[in-house]
Amino acid sequence: MENNTIQTLINEKKYFEIRKYLNDLNTIEVSELLNQFESSELIMIFRLLSKNRAADVFSYLDTEHQEMIINTMTDVETKNIFDELYFDDIVDIIEEMPSNVVKKILKNTDAKDRHTINQLLKYPDNSAGSIMTTEYMDLKKDMTVSQAISKIRSTVENMENVYTCYVIDEVRKLEGVISLKELITSENDTPIQNLMNKNIINVHANDDQENVAEIIKKYNLIVLPVTDDENRLLGIITVDDIMDVVEQEATEDFHKMAGISPVEESYLKTSAFTMARQRISWLIVLMISATFTGRIIKSYEDVLQSVVILSSFIPMLMDTGGNAGAQSSTIVVRALALGEVNPKDAFKILKKEFSISLIVAVVLAAINYLRLIILTKTPLNVALTVSVTLIFVVMISKIIGAFLPVVAKTFKMDPAIMAGPLITTILDALTLTIYFRFATMFLSNMIK
Amino acid sequence: MENNTIQTLINEKKYFEIRKYLNDLNTIEVSELLNQFESSELIMIFRLLSKNRAADVFSYLDTEHQEMIINTMTDVETKNIFDELYFDDIVDIIEEMPSNVVKKILKNTDAKDRHTINQLLKYPDNSAGSIMTTEYMDLKKDMTVSQAISKIRSTVENMENVYTCYVIDEVRKLEGVISLKELITSENDTPIQNLMNKNIINVHANDDQENVAEIIKKYNLIVLPVTDDENRLLGIITVDDIMDVVEQEATEDFHKMAGISPVEESYLKTSAFTMARQRISWLIVLMISATFTGRIIKSYEDVLQSVVILSSFIPMLMDTGGNAGAQSSTIVVRALALGEVNPKDAFKILKKEFSISLIVAVVLAAINYLRLIILTKTPLNVALTVSVTLIFVVMISKIIGAFLPVVAKTFKMDPAIMAGPLITTILDALTLTIYFRFATMFLSNMIK
C-alpha cells in the first residue's frame, strides 16, 4: 500500500510530495519502507530525508540496505550520518559490514570517535561491553542541582538516556546515581552528593549479556551502568537492547533443544546451505546413535519372531517415553533459564519428578491396559508386559529428562542441549531394553 | 549468609541494628531476605521498615508472604501500604489472594481507588488493560513549558513514569506526547502544543499483551499509552512489565512444544498433582495415536517376518524423521513468534525447506548407506531400501514440520502446538508407511 503510493510518486518525480509523505511517518515506518526498495530508488528516497532524521532511519535499515547506501554516499554524507549515530549502533553496523565499507566508515569518523569504536569492538561477543553505549550523562558530586540541570540541558542532544545520571569522580570512578526526576523536584542549590544514591547496581564490561539481562529484570531497571576492574564508568546498557538479548537467548534455547546449531540471521535471510549445515551435524550424531537402538532390537530377534505382536508396541513405547522425558527436560531447562530453580535444588527436583512421574505413569499404564484388553484382542500377559513396561519407561524418562539438564548446569554446560533429540535417543535405548527384559521375564512360555 | 546475620540479630533482639542493616540493602534485596522468613519473624522485620519503603518491599514479596502480612496487619497499616502501591501492582496482588484478603484490601482503599481497581480487574487476562497502570503524567496542550514542569514537580511522587508525558483534551482524548527531555530543553513560555509529537503510537485496552510486546520492541519504547474506543487515555504500560510478558510467552511456547498445558506458577511452587495433570492429557492423546503406528507395523507383519532385519532400522528411521521434522517446526514456530516470517511467506518457507531438506536428506542417506555396507553386513538391497526411505522421510518430515505451524497461524491457531510431540507422532506413521512401501517394492524377492 505505502509502497505503491510512494512508487507512484517516484514515477511521477513528485519529490516534494514524497518528502511530505515521509515526514508524516515515524522513523521505524520510514526504514521499513526503505527496506523494500533497491539501489537507485533507495538512495533517492534516503537523500530526501532531513540530515538528523537520515541517521536515525539509517540505524534501523537492513544490513544490505545500509551497505548500498554507504557505498554510494560521498565521504561528507557518510560522516554526517555516522556523527549522528550512537556508538553502540556504529559498532553493530561495523561488525556486519565487509572490510571496504568498514574502512570508509572509519575514515570518516574523528580520531577520538575512532578510538572509542575500536575500544568497543574489542569486547568479547555477547559481553556487557559489546552491547553498551558510551553516551551517558555524567555529573560531578560537587555540582548543585541547577548546575546539573544546565549541564543536562546543554548536552541532552547526544545522549541515549538522560533520565538516569551518573556521578563520577576525577578518574571517572562511579560514585552515585541520580535520576532526572529527583533533580527537577529538588531545591536548586542542593549539592547533588546529598541527593545521589550510593547503592549502585552495575555490571562489569566482561560480564555475559545473559547476566546483564538477569540483573535488569531482577531490579526492573531502564538503564544499567557498565564499569571496569577499577569501578570506572565505561558505558550504559538500556533496557531496549536487553529485550533483544532476552529473545535471542530464548531463540538459542529453542534451537539447541531441537538440535540446531545457533543461527545468527533471521530465517528468510539465511541461505539453504547454511541452514542445512546447522541442522545436519546433530542429525548425523543422532542417526548413528539411533542405530544402537536398532542393535537392541536385533539382539532380541528371537523374542520378536516368537511373539510378533510385541514389535507393534515399540513405536508407542518409544514415543511415550520420549514425550514424557521431553516434557520434564523442557520444564527444567526453562525453569533453569528463568532462574526459578538452580542445581542446588537437584534433590527437590528429583523428588518432585518422582511424584509427578508416578501419577502420570500409573494413569497411562491403566488406560493402556484397559484399552488393550477391551478394544483389541491382545493376550492378557502381553497387555500386562506392555503396561508394566510403560510404568517404568515413563518414570525413568521423566526422572532422567529432569536430571540431565541439572547435571549439565552443575558442570557449567548449557542445559538446553540436554533436552530434545538427545534425550529422546538415550531414552529410546532404555525403553527397548526395559521392554525386552520384561518380555523375556513375563512371556517366557511364549518364547520358543 | 545474610539470612544468618539477621537471624543472629533477631535472636539477640537488636532491632536498631536490624533496621540499620536493612537500610543498606535495596528494595529487591530486602524482599528477597523477607521471603526467607516465616510468619512472626517476617512481620517483625517488615514492621521495622520505614513507611514508604514498606510498600515498595511488599510489592516484591511472594504471594504467600504478602498474604501472611495482610492477615496480621491492622486496617490502618493495610491502608498505609496500599495507598503507596501502583494500581497495576494492587491488581496483580488482588488476583492472587483469597477472597477474605481481597475484602480486607478493598475495605481499606478509598472509594475512588476502589473504582479504578475494579475497572482494571475487568480487563480480560493478558490484555493491555490488565497490565497497564493508571498513574501517568497528563498535561493540557495550552500549558506552557514552565506550567508543565511545575505540574510534573508537584505530582511526580505518585507517578510510575514521568519521562513521557501525555497531552489530553477536556474529555481525556489523547492529543500528543512530549518527553521530559524536550520540556527541560525548551523555552519556559513555549506552549506545549508547539512541542508535542502528534504522531502517537498507542494500543487499545483489549489488545493482547503479545501485541503490546511487539509494538514496544518494534519502536524501542520505554512506555506505551493505552486508549479506549474513543481514543481516551486509560493508562500506560512500561517496558519492564513487557519484559515479563516476553519471557512468559517464550515459556508458554516451550511448554506447548513439549506437549504441556500452560503452567502459571514457578516450578518449585506447583504441586506434583497439578503438574501431572498438565502433562498427562497430551501424553494420553499421543500414546493412543502412537498405536496407529503400531497398527502399521502389525499390518506388515509378513514383511517383517520374512526380512527380520528390517525391524532393527525402525527406531533409526523414526528418530531421524522426528528430529528432522522437529528442527524445521521449531525454527518456523520461533520465526513466526519473532515476526521474522508470517503466513504470507508460506511459499518462500516451503521453497527454502525443500532445498534444505534435499541437502540434508542426501547427505544423511549417503552416510547411512556407506556405514551399512562398510561397517555392517547388511545386504546391499536392504541398505538401499533404508537409505532411499531416509531421503523421503527426511524431506517429507522437514516440509511438513515447517508447513504445519504456518497452517496453524493462518487459521489463527497457536503454531507452537504444531511442533514437538504432535509432529513426531504424525511423522512416525508416515515414516513407517514409506518404509514398508519401499521394502515391498525393493525386496519383493526376499518376502515369502
Automatic annotation (TrEMBL), chains A, B:
Gene3D superfamilies: CBS-domain (3.10.580.10), MgtE N-terminal domain-like (1.25.60.10), SLC41 divalent cation transporters, integral membrane domain (1.10.357.20)
GO CC terms in record: plasma membrane
Keyword Cytoplasm: no
Matching InterPro entries: CBS_dom, CBS_dom_sf, Mg_transptr_MgtE_intracell_dom, MgtE_N_sf, MgtE_transporter, SLC41_membr_dom, SLC41_membr_dom_sf
Membrane topology type: Multi-pass membrane protein
One term of GO molecular function: metal ion binding
Location (main, coarse): membrane
Any Pfam family matching the protein: MgtE_N
PROSITE patterns named among the record's database cross-references: CBS
Superkingdom field: Bacteria
Family, as annotated: Belongs to the SLC41A transporter family.
Protein name: Magnesium transporter MgtE
Gene: mgtE
